[in-house]
Design a protein that fits this description.
Belongs to the FAD-binding oxidoreductase/transferase type 4 family. By secondary structure, the chain is of the alpha+beta class. The protein is built from 17 helices and 18 strands. It is 38% helix and 20% strand.
């Protein structure tokens, strides 16, 4: 098949309404959420079934045309954005959004890749169960997208990342074949784990079309608290105290700097912090999920927080008295990325650091960055319980954000990524590599690991048509 024949063949396979080629129709698929990357797709294909996904892949394979899979397009590293060549096909899975089944006995939900995470959560809740994967973009992020990046979110501390919650996959290979691997088993030791190979691969090895996900019992009670702290060392001490007392029932532990709260207050004034923003330089949003009842949960949380206050380890705290108050606390946390986006482009980092090194890492890097850029704003927040920091740098007030990023991004990346790797950390905790961090992957990854990754890519995608240029550079 020639490239000239491709679009008519795609329309014949999907229906004319589901192949977009006009620039205005494709605009929403051509740019990433951060508006950092903009491509020029040749067309956007919108399959409605796994068989149609396979048909699109086969047609593109025969024409030698690259495919860029796309879910909710909420990624932060450009992993779902086409290049500027005008030759690539965006394969958007938004029509494939069904929850296919929920098995209450096995506690498994099977959903298609285009199913929005919040919709899957609601389906689980309606069945009396919990899908614990939760992140700020859950109202638009899709199941396929969160698996392709191995997203983490706010409950990793208790339930693990997307990979830990996935039992099986259905996927289309680079050859256009369908792998029907939707296992619901907790144990299946039968050779290479193909599921884990595709999770986190960002669509470079195949296209996830459906997944079976583990469900859990709904907690009998939840308690949420907002705690003011003097420094990151105090936050780590509170984390250890909470872990000792609450064990696996500690389901959320988010670190938030006062700089984050000032941005949220500026752009979302209807959201009010539970404690004065200037009460402390750091805050923690803590959540306990209890299997007994409200009184038991309240007593356990009060014990932890009371001991921290008495010891001077915490400066102040506010405990949500209702579900609405708890949701309001979480809304502040979830609006931090939106506030940053409203403020302008920033230098964004998704760093993993061992919790034991967190306090010194933040103190040392903050000092060095402030010396480098005295007026810059360090907007630091993240999932302290699993060592994942979103360590972002906002331009000085009234400065040109684009110019600031262009001038300082390389030096900031080198400083923070070097510091993280030195203490056994990573330059990418949950956002993935995408386009943004391919150079970092080549620089920091173990050479033997890179050889193995390249070998896997060549074996599964010999034509190099699956999301080329993402994760591994195209020439690798």
């Amino acid at each position: 098949m020639t490239t000239t024949d491709l679009l008519p063949a795609l329309r014949a396979a999907l229906g004319a309404d589901y192949v977009l080629a006009a620039p205005a129709d494709m605009a929403g698929y051509a740019e990433d959420w951060r508006k950092r990357y903009r491509g020029v797709p040749r067309a956007v294909a919108l399959p409605g079934t796994t068989e149609q996904v396979a048909a699109v892949v086969r047609l593109c394979r025969d024409a030698g045309v690259a495919i860029v899979p796309q879910g909710g397009n909420t990624g932060l590293v450009g992993g779902a954005t086409p290049d500027a060549s005008g030759t690539q096909i965006v394969l958007a899975l938004k029509r494939m959004r069904r929850v296919r089944s929920i098995d209450v006995a096995d506690r498994v939900l099977v959903a298609e890749a285009g199913c929005v995470l919040a919709e899957a959560q609601r389906a689980a809740r309606a069945a009396g169960l919990l899908l614990p994967l939760s992140l700020a973009a859950e109202g638009s992020a899709t199941i396929g997208g969160v698996l392709s990046t191995n997203a983490g979110g706010t409950a990793v501390l208790r339930y693990g990342s997307a990979r830990a919650l996935c039992l099986g996959l259905e996927a289309v290979t680079a050859q256009g074949e369908i792998w029907r691997g939707l296992s619901t088993l907790r144990k299946d030791n039968t050779g290479y784990d193909l599921r884990d190979l595709l999770i986190g691969a960002e669509g470079t090895l195949g296209i996830i079309t459906a997944a079976s996900l583990m469900l859990y019992p709904q907690p009998a009670a939840r308690r949420t608290a907002w705690v003011a702290l003097a420094d990151v060392a105090a936050a780590v001490a509170l984390l250890n105290r909470a872990r000792d007392a609450l064990d696996a029932d500690l389901t959320g532990f988010e670190l938030i700097s006062s700089a984050c709260l000032r941005l949220v207050a500026r752009h979302f004034p209807a959201l009010h912090a539970p404690l004065p923003i200037d009460a402390a330089p750091w805050f923690v949003l803590l959540e306990l999920s209890d299997s007994e009842d409200d009184a038991h949960a309240q007593a356990r949380l009060e014990t932890v927080l009371g001991a921290a206050l008495e010891a001077g380890a915490a400066l102040d705290c506010a405990v949500a008295a209702s579900l609405a108050q708890a949701e309001a606390m979480w809304a502040i946390r979830e609006h931090i990325p939106l506030a940053q986006a409203s403020e302008g482009l920033n230098i964004k980092h998704d760093i993993a650091v061992p919790v034991s090194h967190m306090a010194t890492f933040v103190a040392d890097t903050a000092t060095r960055l402030t010396q480098m850029m005295p007026q810059a704003r360090l907007v630091i927040f993240g999932h302290l319980g699993d060592g994942n920091l979103h360590y972002n740098i906002q331009a000085p007030v009234q400065a040109d954000a684009d110019a600031f990023r262009a001038q300082h991004e390389h030096a900031c990346n080198a400083l923070l990524h070097d510091a993280a790797v030195r203490v056994g950390g990573s330059f990418s905790a949950e956002h993935g590599v995408g386009l943004l961090k391919t150079a970092e992957l080549i620089h920091y990854k173990d050479p033997v690991a890179l050889q193995m990754m390249r070998a896997v890519k060549r074996a599964l995608d010999p034509q190099g048509l699956m999301n080329p240029g993402k994760v591994l550079p195209a020439a690798s």
